[in-house]
């Protein structure tokens, strides 16, 4: 694999033709839009047509079994996503944040992690959660309003979902600094941290500060930006003149754009980046170029701000379809295999649905639980007074 | 150009124009009127252009006023507020939309350090005529950070003015008055009431911005005073209706302005009723409600028949939404406090 130095100064293939005069904003934006189809710096190993292509730096040996595993992950998590979306439509969830279209970016990145690595998600990372061994039912409470996520972030090394855009990036930088301070960096057995955020998030101060901190402390941190082209209704041009991966340069670390709809390329690039971080060459920014195929959330109406043509174009680059085509071409899977995965995904959907509709509402005392590690007598008095008031109702005294 | 009361249409016949509007539509029309009245008025925020904001409060404004007056900004609240400061000292009147209450905090530093203090630091040479609109409060079944009541932080900060509307008429007029104000105004919108409707007279402002208002009077003895603001006004009025059926008269006062507080009408009321219940969704510790309790006990000490009681959210983070009905003050909790006050 290549050394990170090679990636410190990736020149954009089509740098804005700016010599004497600065390009106009429109020219820059037009240039960026052109890169929507990908540019020469986009790392790709599996084309949308399912053709395996070579890459000079990021090739990967993949067995039939591994590729089937990635396929299964993506099919299952898509099914989970569609089921949760439907559960919201049926009123069983208050809201859902779809990952449709981002399966390869998430499964590729998630499967590059090792159990000791730490991951910091934003709120769309259901595929990463899956790869951290978190059952999708553990996500549901966030969206049903019964809890804030039930998984153990210490055990799974998967931080709680973070909704305030960009906050988790600094937290991840600090965690990675801790890995370094603990002497956990320096060889292939070392730990690394990965932090997920969106294209919109790249405007937040916290993200920029995270870049600075991680760089200054040589933190073993992979910044994983899923550029799904949209931050609710705002296209990526609202956040940046340049392709996002090129930002890394200004902070002094490598930035790479990978085809986020290509699970193999994402896996290869993320593995490489994690390995560099383990060796002490972090941080690294990965921009996974992908597309949010559904609404921002179930509360959103994308028809107000984007054309459906765009979606149609991206459907041709579907992250799952290309793997299926490749598996068939290679004769690595037959129709029986696909049916088996289909059946497994249906069973998972049923499990999710049944779990969801039977989730109990939390008891009122939960409001007051875990606010402090060491308790707070003022709050405890408030709790007791309120619970006394509530039990007055139960006893019908009121 | 601080105009305490506005009469946008009084060049006309003086006839009133009454329309039934939701709070959300009234805000939209108020913003539009302010933009029409003054070309220096700008809107800034996330998703406020094509989308019209996640609550559609700025619906159609970018289409009609262009991208230089309705800015879909990059995703950064410190950026929104900080650049609004620069625009304001350059002569603009920016109106910033914070998408949800819980997302104001990345902009907190700019608000507290610059927005609040520039006028003071420049001995009045820099005016900060900007409005920061914040949909606030719970009750909509949302995920974390979408249901908060952060108003006390801002009322605690010298240099900021803080208001909250509770009905369509105030939405329509208060937003325009806030934009006309030469001081920075935090404008808290009761998001769970956005779709409540009432008739709005769009020809005449019903009163000044920084004034509380008695919404329901209770002249007789044996009554109590209820004070609230924003989304809790509906709860207070419902409680007053319910209490009236049981023969108890409640006087309801909408604070409208949280900083500066306008407690004159509250003192006047408490001196008659001798009893006060203050209602707010925000946690109670070091809050607007504690401020009111402190001031009322000082000003109305000899009139009080019972301690000032407060019905508030708890001093916890906002809970998962399945628990918000327990967290939020409701009719029963308000009436329970009224009963306790009357029984004191
Ligand atoms: C600090 C903050 N401001 C605003 C929001 C509201 N909001 C939620 S998601 C979002 C867009 C995020 O876009 P991006 O970072 O591209 O992530 P994506 O949703 O596309 O995965 C916004 C503005 C928020 N959650 N936090
Ligand atoms: Mg995005």
Automatic annotation (TrEMBL), chain A:
InterPro entries: Alpha-ketoacid_DH_E1_comp (IPR050771), DH_E1 (IPR001017), PdhA/BkdA (IPR017596), THDP-binding (IPR029061). This is Pyruvate dehydrogenase E1 component alpha subunit. GO terms for molecular function: magnesium ion binding; oxidoreductase activity, acting on the aldehyde or oxo group of donors, disulfide as acceptor. PANTHER family: 2-OXOISOVALERATE DEHYDROGENASE SUBUNIT ALPHA, MITOCHONDRIAL (PTHR43380). Residues 10-23 have a biased composition (Low complexity). Residues 72-348 form the Dehydrogenase E1 component domain. It holds the Pfam family E1_dh. The lineage of its organism: Bacteria, Bacillati, Actinomycetota, Actinomycetes, Pseudonocardiales. It comes from the Bacteria. Signal peptide: none annotated. Keywords: Oxidoreductase, Pyruvate, Thiamine pyrophosphate. Residues 1-23 are annotated as: Disordered. The keyword Cell inner membrane does not apply. Transmembrane segments: none annotated. Its cofactor is thiamine diphosphate. GO terms for biological process: branched-chain amino acid catabolic process. SUPFAM superfamilies: Thiamin diphosphate-binding fold (THDP-binding).
From TrEMBL, chain B:
The keyword Membrane does not apply. CDD domains: TPP_PYR_E1-PDHc-beta_like (cd07036). Keywords: Oxidoreductase, Pyruvate, Thiamine pyrophosphate. GO terms for molecular function: magnesium ion binding; oxidoreductase activity. The keyword Oxidoreductase applies. Residues 21-196 form the Transketolase-like pyrimidine-binding domain. InterPro entries: THDP-binding, Transketo_C/PFOR_II, Transketolase-like_Pyr-bd, Transketolase_C. It comes from the Bacteria. Its cofactor is thiamine diphosphate. This is Pyruvate dehydrogenase E1 component beta subunit. It comes from Umezawaea tangerina.
């Amino acid at each position: 694999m290549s050394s990170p130095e090679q990636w410190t100064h990736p020149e954009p293939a089509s740098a804005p033709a700016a010599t004497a005069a600065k390009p106009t904003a429109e020219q820059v934006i037009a240039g960026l839009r052109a890169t929507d189809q990908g540019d020469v710096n986009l790392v790709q190993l599996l084309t949308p047509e399912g053709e395996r292509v070579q890459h000079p730096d990021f090739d990967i040996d993949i067995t039939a079994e591994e590729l089937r595993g990635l396929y299964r992950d993506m099919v299952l998590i898509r099914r989970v996503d569609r089921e949760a979306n439907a559960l919201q439509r049926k009123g069983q969830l208050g809201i859902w944040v779809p990952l449709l279209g981002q399966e390869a970016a998430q499964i590729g990145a998630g499967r590059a992690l090792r159990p000791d690595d730490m991951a910091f998600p934003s709120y769309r990372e259901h595929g990463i959660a899956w790869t951290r061994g978190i059952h999708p039912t553990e996500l549901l409470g966030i969206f049903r309003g019964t809890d804030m996520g039930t998984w153990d972030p210490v055990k799974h090394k998967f931080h709680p979902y973070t909704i305030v855009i960009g906050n988790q990036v600094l937290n991840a930088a600090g965690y990675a600094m801790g890995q370094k301070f603990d002497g956990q960096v320096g060889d292939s057995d070392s730990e690394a941290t990965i932090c997920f955020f969106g294209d919109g998030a790249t405007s937040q101060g916290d993200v920029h500060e995270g870049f600075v901190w991680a760089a200054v402390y040589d933190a073993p941190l992979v910044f994983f930006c899923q550029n799904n082209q949209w931050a609710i209704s705002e296209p990526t041009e609202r956040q940046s003149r340049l392709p996002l991966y090129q930002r890394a340069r200004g902070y002094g670390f490598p930035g790479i754009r990978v085809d986020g709809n290509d699970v193999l390329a994402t896996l290869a690039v993320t593995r490489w980046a994690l390995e560099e971080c383990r060796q002490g060459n972090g941080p690294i920014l990965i921009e996974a170029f992908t597309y949010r195929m559904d609404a921002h959330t179930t509360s959103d109406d994308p028809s107000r701000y984007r054309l459906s043509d765009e979606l149609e174009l991206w459907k041709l680059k579907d992250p799952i379809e290309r793997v299926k085509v490749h598996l068939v071409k290679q004769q690595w899977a037959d129709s029986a295999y696909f049916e088996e995965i289909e059946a497994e995904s249906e069973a998972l959907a049923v499990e999710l649905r049944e779990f969801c509709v039977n989730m109990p509402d939390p008891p009122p005392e939960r409001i007051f639980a875990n606010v402090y590690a060491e308790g707070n007598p003022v709050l405890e008095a408030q709790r007791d007074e309120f619970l006394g008031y509530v039990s007055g109702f139960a006893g019908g005294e009121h | 150009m601080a105009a305490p009361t506005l009469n946008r249409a009084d060049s006309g016949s003086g006839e009133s124009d009454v329309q039934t509007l939701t709070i959300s539509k009234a805000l939209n029309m108020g913003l539009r009127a302010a933009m029409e009245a003054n070309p220096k008025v700008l809107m800034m925020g996330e998703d406020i252009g094509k989308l019209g904001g996640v609550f559609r409060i700025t619906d159609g404004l970018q289409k009609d006023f262009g991208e230089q007056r309705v800015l879909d900004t990059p995703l950064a609240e410190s950026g929104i507020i900080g650049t609004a400061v620069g625009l304001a000292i350059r002569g603009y009147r920016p109106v910033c939309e914070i998408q949800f209450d819980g997302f104001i905090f990345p902009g907190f530093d700019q608000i507290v350090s610059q927005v609040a203090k520039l006028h003071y630091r420049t001995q009045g040479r820099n005016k900060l005529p900007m409005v920061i609109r914040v949909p606030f409060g719970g009750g909509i079944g949302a995920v974390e950070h979408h249901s908060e009541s952060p108003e006390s932080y801002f009322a605690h900060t010298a240099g900021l003015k803080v208001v909250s509307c509770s009905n369509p008429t105030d939405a329509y007029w208060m937003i325009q008055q806030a934009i006309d104000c030469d001081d920075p105004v935090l404008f808290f919108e009761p998001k769970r009431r956005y779709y409540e409707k009432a008739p709005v007279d769009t020809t005449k402002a019903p009163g000044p911005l920084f004034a509380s208002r008695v919404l329901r009077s209770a002249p007789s003895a044996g009554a109590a005073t209820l004070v609230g603001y924003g989304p809790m006004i509906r709860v207070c009025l419902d409680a007053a209706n319910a209490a009236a059926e049981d023969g108890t008269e409640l006087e309801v006062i909408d604070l409208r302005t949280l900083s500066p507080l306008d407690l004159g009408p509250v003192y006047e009321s408490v001196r008659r009723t001798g009893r006060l219940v203050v209602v707010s969704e925000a946690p109670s510790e070091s809050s607007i409600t504690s401020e009111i309790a402190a001031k009322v006990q000082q000003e109305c000490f000899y009139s009080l028949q019972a301690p000032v009681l407060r019905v508030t959210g708890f001093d916890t983070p906002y809970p998962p939404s399945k628990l918000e009905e327990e967290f939020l003050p409701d009719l029963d909790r308000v009436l329970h406090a009224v009963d306790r006050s009357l029984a004191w």
